[in-house]
Prior knowledge:
The complex is a heterodimer. By secondary structure, chain A is of the alpha+beta class.
Amino acid sequence: MSAEYTVSSVFAATPQSVGSGRGVVAIERGGLAIAHLAARTAQVQALRARVREHFGIELPDAARRVSARGVAAAGIAPQRWLMLAQDAGEEFVPDLVARLEPLATVVELTDAYAVLRLSGADLRASLAKLVPIDLHEAQFRPGDVAQTVLEHMPVTLWRLEDAPAGQPVFELAVAGSFAGSLYEAVRDSAAEFGFRFEPLAQR
Amino acid sequence: MSVYRLAGEGAIQRDRTLSFTFDGRRHSAYAGDTLASALLAAGVHLVGRSFKYHRPRGILTAGSEEPNALVELRCGARREPNTRATMIELFEGLQACSQNAWPSRVFDVGAINSLLSRLFVAGFYYKTFMWPAAWWEKVYEPAIRRAAGLGRASAEPDPDCYEKAHAFCDVLVIGSGPAGLAAALTAARAGARVLVCEEDFLPGGRLNGERHEIDGADAASWARNAVAELRALPEVRFMTRTTVFGVYDGATYGAIERVSDHLPMPPEHQPRQRFWKIVARRTVLATGALERTVVFGGNDRPGVMLAAAVRTYVNRYRVTPGRRVGLFTTGDDGWKTAFDLLDAQVEVPVIVDARAAVGAALLEQASRHDVQVVLGGQILSTAGARALRRVEVLDRDGRVRGVPVDALAVAGGWSPNLALATHLGMRPRWDESISAHVPADLPPSLCAVGAAAGEFSLAGALRSGAAAGRDAARTAGFDAPLVSWQTDEERLESSPLWFVPGSRGKAFVDYQHDVTAEDVALAVREGYRSAEHLKRYTTLGMGTDQGKTAQLNGHALLAARTGREVAEIGTIAARPPYTPVAIGALAARERGRNFRPYRLTPSHRWAETRGAVFVDTGQWRRAQWFALPGESDWRSTVAREVRSVRTAVGVCDVSTLGKIDVQGRDAASFLERIYANAVATLPVGRVRYGLMLRIDGMVLDDGTIAHLRDGHFLLSSSTAHVAQVMRHLTYAQQVLWPELDVQLTNVTEQWAQFAIAGPLARTLLERVCAEALALSNADLPHMACASLRWLGRRARLFRISFCGELGYELAVPARCAETTVRALMQAGESLGVTPYGTEALGVMRIEKGHVAGPEINGTTTAEDLGLGRLVSRHKDFIGRVLASRPALSAPDRPALVGLRPLDPHARLTSGAHLLAAGVPLSLQNDQGFVSSSAFSPTLGRWIGLGFLSRARERLGEQIRAYDPLRNLDLPVEVVRPVFYDPDGLRVKG
């Protein structure tokens, strides 16, 4: 077999727009390599040191996301993280395995998640209809991570630095099989504010 | 302009006239009116008929506590029964109808019930319709439902949508009257996150309905300014048309925002209502107080209205309920209504105050007008056919005289609005000084202020509101200066009069449920002494209004009849919701296709292009079969798919099966304790069937265990059990054996997995991955696994088979699924490769006798399933101890068998009972059941799996399968549960 495969959007096949298209903007993230990282028993200190050495990241002790040089680590449970790397290629996770074993168990989840980047002036009002947690500016800071539930779907979300205009930016990660359902929920919650969706660029 | 509409400003917009119809008749009113104020302005005083006696009823209140003026709002699919006219904000084209009246509200045949009222007393239903018992459902209940009852719901689907949303705040203020606004302003100015919920469309509460001054400005404009200030603050959310209907644990509140109910229909992308779940650090209950009626003869006649409601209509809506309005009061507060009416040039012929003496200021003010004042007086009865014409006044000298009036304002005193203060089970406290219950034992997160706490003066409301606002803000870390506002001082003396003893005619306690003073007396005669029992027996305090205007009068009557003080009676506990809530709002988006989220398999879009018919299995939407053009019968489609797999090769997306990655130094010994069969002996590169038990010894799940590399396993679980298995493993890892070095990752979503099965499966695979992997029996024997490069990524191939043919499962990263399945189809085209769905999969597993969900149903042991030989005798594992309970190996315990109808054309159905041949049909003779059945295209007949008592000794026996639901009764033969290739040679091919 040739080493070519077609990746298409898991959320919706084509760009979509409701109303003004400005209240909430959802962009499907592509090229994101994802791994689940779990420290082996009694290895967490050594693991931190090795991650610091290779990626310049201090693995967070809380539900926080830190990043450096295109690689991010999000704390999802004690001694467990999601590692996310933008455009790092298909060898990112196998390399991570090679670098971090046996200090950690590294399992690839690149294909397991679908990730939406959400922004827009009415994003918080829209998210208030979707998730049962407080996303107030002062309560959920840039870099905060939450695992919660959205219309019965387990989701992981984190807040990025604000957009230049000062508007909040969140990313929402959901199991790929739920992508269609999640997309419809996000679109419906944002419809009154105006909504726009950009699917994954085909490659 | 109608004679009932007064001059002056109020809170209506005279420049916006709206037209509406009531019972088909056209009227007009103004923006800012409610349906109630619009009807009063139009001179419509008879609004509907009562629940039981079909008595003519009008409008009693100006708020959400309204018991009488219930109407059907809108028409068609949007028709909504039991809507309170006092809460309906008028819009252009509004249509409303009276309910519970036929042929019309003015002439209502049902009013004959009134003549039979001696029969319809409390407890009537319980006593009268006792026998014959069978008549209850067929005769009595339908008849009663037709005669009694409230409005009719639309039978059509609700065309509107609803939303739910979440809000968080430091301070939740419920109600925006003077106390609520004072609390909100104080907390908000300090910087706290404040959420104000106001059920009215106009904030301000009684400040709109009464004439007061605050800091020199009239109270209504003070309220407007306060709201504007609040709305301008970034941390404040001010929601009108929003009713907080319930208080729940964890400082959580439920609220309904009526987003579009004031419009003809919701605008695009807007819900009709929004259900809010609010989490608040502190909550200020500023829900005000509810005025009580007085129980006297004919107190339900249209035109009798609570006094505060009268002045609200006069001041806010500039409408008077009559041109000659009498007053019957038990305190100073009622006199305000009379003076407001007089100042609006409405005649007040009589003020009847039940107290023998009142303050000189009141008498002096009354003397400036031509008003008859009767002190120590009572109203015995009212007269008028469909509207009030006269009241009979008893003075303290015992003389009775008739006074012509067309409306009567009744001021029976105020009760704090307790509902939310009792939702968490708190019992209110009786306060003798105000003759009412006040909130008590509130949790620290909740406090009541103003009239809701029994502080009825405006000054007191502002003061207590500000103090509570400051306290609440401080709890959240914001220091607030205490603001004070100047306002007029009021005298608010009162002395309760619960009922008029010499009443003539029916004297109503609970208007909505037609409960009279005599019903309470009857209940006492029959031995009911507690408020809760009184409620159940008489229905006092039930219905859409939950007796908000009735409760205390009823309890006072109970007290009087049983020789006790009101304080001794206590009060009933209110439960959510405070006012009726549409079920649609609670469901919000979760209806129809959005009822639950769906999950799509990685090859879903490809399957759509192949004509797949999908089936919901849990949340998953899976391809059930792939119909070819011209195939109209699904059974023939499935038969074709089965035959293709048995004779050539088929491909099925099995990605929904659970996949759990287990790694760590102790992974093998962890799994050894999890599985009932041996795991430690499984070499790297091999796969083994595994059986997991629950702690109670029942089978939890079955699946495969693949040993990928040293210390690295991949488990599979059935689709339905993934979450359960993951929870079970996590529990074992975190709680039972935290000392083991094991890491678990659910990788179900990472991998798309395709079963490639059939005698030509290897041929097909060789065409696509021969370069990556050697596939011969020697290189990759049955139950082996290997990894390979696939589309530039890492993939895995397992030589396993569920259908009993030579089979493989190819696991590829989920995003490669579509490319993969298309490649398989293309490569297999000349081999006759056929996509198959869950139905064919199910048929083939029954042919092979593999157990699945219907057999692993939580009540079966390994022994029951015929898997006893797998259970290890040489190690400990979860479920071992309890699986050895003697009863679980009793010989008559049903165990797995194969079943074959003697008639090859006869259909066998799942759920059919199994009985020995020749015994009578009875539960005692029941010996088991059919768990799975299918038509086997391979064998050309129906076959089944089932559980049967003493299964092992009955092979070959003819028994009977009886299915009363489908009316099937047929002889079947007990056979081994493997119908196809019993020696398992084909998988090794």
